[in-house]
Write a structure and sequence with these properties.
- The strands form two sheets. Strands 1-2-3-6-7-8-9 form a seven-stranded mixed β-sheet, sandwiched between helices. A two-stranded antiparallel ribbon has the order 4-5.
- The two termini are 18 Å apart.
- The protein is built from ten helices and nine strands.
- 47% of the residues are buried.
- By secondary structure, the protein is an alpha/beta fold.
- The protein has a single domain, classed as Rossmann fold (3-Layer(aba) Sandwich).
């Protein structure tokens, strides 16, 4: 396992994870339609029937669809549960689920999934039901609700990676919260198909557990650079619980953003993760760890 690189996480990966929430402007330095391409959800015709039949499993996807096309938590004063509950839901579903960006300088493709500011929607009545990993049959069991979200974007992500990854050397997959779950579900799927020629790097933020031990073993056999960045005060990375037989893939890197008494403040990027990774880097000078994913 290549050592965790905090500078890479803070200065390179974080802007992609943060920019994934904005359907208008991706990470700084990237332009829509030129070197940044929208990840769009495609809802199957039977979606409404499946949603009605399994309302708990549907909650993560509905939370994603309810998110505005631009982030509304833009400063620390808005990173509270009360502020989020008062945010109006858009009239139309938001089908933007992130960006696929081409970093030609480093011969790297970046897949960045967004999460949702309404994560309490699925936390309040969380369902632990598993289902077989449908992308690659026989490779383990994963959380049914998270898989429903991934299935909504799987075809679009695959097309983008196949089209934009030609001639590149690496693929970086990242995401925050539910976006981290999407990263964990997409990585082995992409590497088994359209990204088989790309070396994988997975860095996630506030990622919940996505699979049972059989899936985790499969993931770890395919992805040898995977770090989950976890704020020690954040509850989301502890769900679903280990008592429900869920495990984390890869390796964890714990940061400390400072204790807050609001779960939103501990979880969102600008208050729960940006200060934490900055603090980690302050106490772990860059010269002590080689760059992860550096092109040489």
């Amino acid at each position: 396992m290549i050592p965790f690189d905090g500078e890479f996480a803070e200065n390179y990966v974080y802007p992609f994870a943060h920019g994934a929430y904005d359907a208008v402007q991706p990470a700084p330095g990237y332009t829509p339609g030129t070197n940044a391409f929208e990840i769009l959800a495609e809802l199957p015709e039977e979606f409404q029937f499946r949603a009605a039949a399994t309302p708990k499993h549907h909650k993560p996807l509905q939370s994603m669809l309810d998110h505005a096309r631009r982030p509304r938590i833009t400063d620390p004063s808005k990173a509270t549960s009360s502020a989020v509950k008062q945010m109006p839901r858009p009239a139309e579903p938001n089908l933007h689920f992130g960006w696929v960006c081409v970093d030609a300088t480093h011969s790297r493709l970046v897949v960045a999934f967004r999460g949702t500011e309404y994560f309490q929607d699925w936390l309040d009545d969380f369902d632990f039901a598993p289902a077989p990993y449908s992308s690659i049959p026989g490779r383990g069991t994963v959380h049914q609700g998270f898989q429903l979200v991934y299935q909504a974007v799987r075809a679009n992500v695959g097309k983008l990676v196949q089209a934009k990854g030609a001639g590149l050397k690496e693929i970086l997959i990242t995401g925050h919260s539910l976006g981290g779950a999407l990263a964990a579900l997409s990585a082995p799927d992409l590497l088994s198909d359209v990204a088989s020629q790309l070396s994988p790097i997975v860095y996630t933020w506030a990622e919940p557990r996505v699979g049972h031990p059989d899936y985790v073993r499969f993931f770890d056999s395919r992805v040898n650079i995977c770090y989950r960045i976890v704020n020690i005060w954040d509850v989301v990375p502890h769900l679903p619980p280990v008592l429900a037989l869920y495990e984390h893939e890869g390796s964890s890197l714990h940061i400390d953003s400072g204790l807050h008494f609001d779960i939103v403040e501990n979880h969102v990027l600008i208050t729960g993760y940006a200060p934490g990774i900055a603090g980690w880097n302050k106490h772990h000078p860059a010269h002590l760890a080689p760059l992860v994913g550096k092109t040489v």
